[in-house]
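Following the same procedure, sequence and fold were stored together, as reproduced here.

>
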Amino acid sequence: MRAVRIASVALLGAVALALTAPAATPYASPRGSTTGPAVTPSVIAPGGQVTLTAQGCSRAAAARSDVFDSVNIPPGGSVTATVAEDAVGDSVHEVTFICNSSPTARAKVALTIATIATTAPAAGSPAPEAVQGGLGNGIAGLNTAEAAGGAALLVVAAARAVVVTRRRKQGRGH
């Protein structure tokens, strides 16, 4: 009976992990390996800096977008790019990565420009300071179905833990 419990908990954990893991975007290098370009953070304010990486390229990779200047990324390294100050908030822009300058080794990654709410300070009061917070791209790309599925799995796992704990207490007879 204990093996069934362990197997059910392991299965629930595996399903929860599979359903909540972000989908990978393949990026084929000329050698055929699958790696991924990255833009960190994926949501940024106008004028902010993003870090660009393109793992798996044996030579320098290029990254370009309409919200920052084109950059070259050294193999196995990363570079920073500054997003244009006049980038429009609540907009999504493509960042195109080209590995080894080969047209067959391309990938596109989304970069979202955040809206910064600004209000005029009252006369004589100091200007408001901008505060950026968030989950560090932990929920980017998460849709409602995935969130609901993950929440349902957590509820099921918690309920199962309560049932197992109660059965153990009843079986001891203390």
